[in-house]
Amino acid sequence: MFYYRIGEQLCCSPTEDLPYEKAEQPKDVCPLVWLFDREAGSCRASFKVNSPDLLFQDKEDVSWLSSHKLSGAAAGQEADPYLLSVIRAGLLRAVNLRHPKFQEIVGGRPLKEKKRVHVLAIGDVGSTLLTGLHLLGGDCISSIGICDISEKVTARWEFEENQIAYPWAYDALPEVDIVAPENLFQCDVFVFVASKGIPPVGSQVKDVRMYQFENNSKIVALYARQARRDGFKGLFAVVSDPVDPLAKTAWLESNKDENGVLDYQGLRPEQVQGFGLGVMNARAAYYAKRDGRFKQFLTEGRSFGPHGEDLVVADSIERYNDELSKELTHLTVTANLHMRAIGFKPFIAPAYSSGAISLILTLRGEWHCGSVFLGGIFMGVKNRYTPYGLETEILPLPEALYERIVTAQEHLKTIV
Predict the structure, then answer these.
(1) Which terminal residue of the chain has fewer beta carbons within 10 Å of its beta carbon, N or C?
(2) Whole-angstrom Cα distance, residue 56 to residue 77?
(3) pLDDT (0 to 100) of residue 224
């Protein structure tokens, strides 16, 4: 591997054995790694560069979602023409030179084609999510391991799930087996669905998600520390509520040494993702299908932010209407209260839209809704994993919409 300078940064060419499909590369460019120098923990350790403006930012935050903000911060700075061609070809990966695992990141390889998935806690959400992964994930999941504090629960679901099959195509669906707690991180994807409990229907708890955070943060911290001890290299997926602060808790706790000091030797920021935005996006689409005022969301809309009160739904990016967008956001955020009002816990849609469907899209390397690390918080955005790192969507966000996203960012900073 060799290095050469472009501007004030260092780039390196990959060695011949790095896992890139040469047949898919344009003839005149090759994959490159762009090295930048930023305090570990202030940003992702690595990411895919999908805009040259990303090369000239002083810090990572929600401005990375807006092409207007990125170009403004990078005004007067231009990337080398060859580097531009690499970015256009989608072959540039950025890596933080100051991250303790820098060499490991540069030499890393993508996961094998099909992934081993472990699901922790098979309650209402976990069992529904498990069924979704089992039925829909045959193309990207090799097998699914399940773990729960109740041996009877895991015995039941191993027995039930493995009796779901296509006739005469008995290997079309991934097998389900029981995993011991000490082996939870012998997998490619760990799915955290554990929860100490959801307030019963009719309780006086107003903010259910923050009630859950007080209890669930302690649980996720235990498994994040186990992931560190086991040297986990895969994806730590958080599905339990509240998704976004729990994802940050998992990342932070995995990066503390035995004295509680941050050393960033645990999970990298991009190894953790929260899965809660999928159902919020689906709920917005539900209302958009039933009210013509919101129909533009189905083709032009986006959702950002946490699975909760600070959610930001945009009816459109190009034709953004602030009033309609806020009304659609309110309907989306309060949809779970509607379900509780009619006497049921709202877990089926989240288990599929945020859980199974979003996870399968993630494993396929396709665009999905998920909560990713953005400068110290986990924020829900449209993103995907690629051989060149995690990629987040960049859009020309209207100022009024961007201000809502900034507000969500500032609120998220206060939770953890």
Answers:
(1) N
(2) 7
(3) 98
3-state SS, one letter per residue, for 25-36: CCCCCCCEEEEE
Q: Which two tokens stand for residue 400?
A: 């009024």
Taking CA atoms, 100 is separated from 37, 51, 222, 235, in Å, by 12, 26, 23, 19
pLDDT number for residue 416: 81
Report the C-alpha gap between 343 and 365 in whole angstroms: 38
**pLDDT, tens digit (0-9, with 9 covering 90-100), for 45-64:** 999 999 999 999 999 999 99
Question: What is the rounded (10 degree) CA torsion for 322, 323, 324, 330?
Answer: 100
CB atoms within 10 A of CB 344: 11
Q: What is the pLDDT of residue 26?
A: 53
DSSP SS3 for 278 = helix
Strand arrangement of the beta sheet that strand 9-13 belongs to = 2-6, 9-13, 32-36, 92-96, 46-48
Q: Is 253 exposed, middle or buried (0-12, 13-18, 19+ CB in 10 A)?
A: buried
Which band of pLDDT confidence, cut at 50, 70 and 90, is reported for residue 8? very low
- Residue by residue, DSSP assigns 225-265 as HHHHHTT--SEEEE-SSSHHHHHHHHHHHHTB-TTS-B---
Structure tokens at 336: 């779970």
Comparing 296 with 8, the larger pLDDT belongs to 296
pLDDT reading at 195 higher than 70: yes
Q: How many CA atoms lie within 13 A of 48 on its CB side?
A: 21
Residue 203 has pLDDT above 70, yes or no: no
> What are the E-state strand segments in 282-357?
302-304, 312-314
Paired with 166 in beta bridges are 169
**Separation of alpha carbons 360 and 373, rounded Å:** 20
Phi/psi at 238 (nearest 5 deg)?
A: -105, 120
Report the share of the chain in percent with pLDDT over 70.
Answer: 89
Predicted structure pTM score: 0.91
pLDDT of res. 23: 36
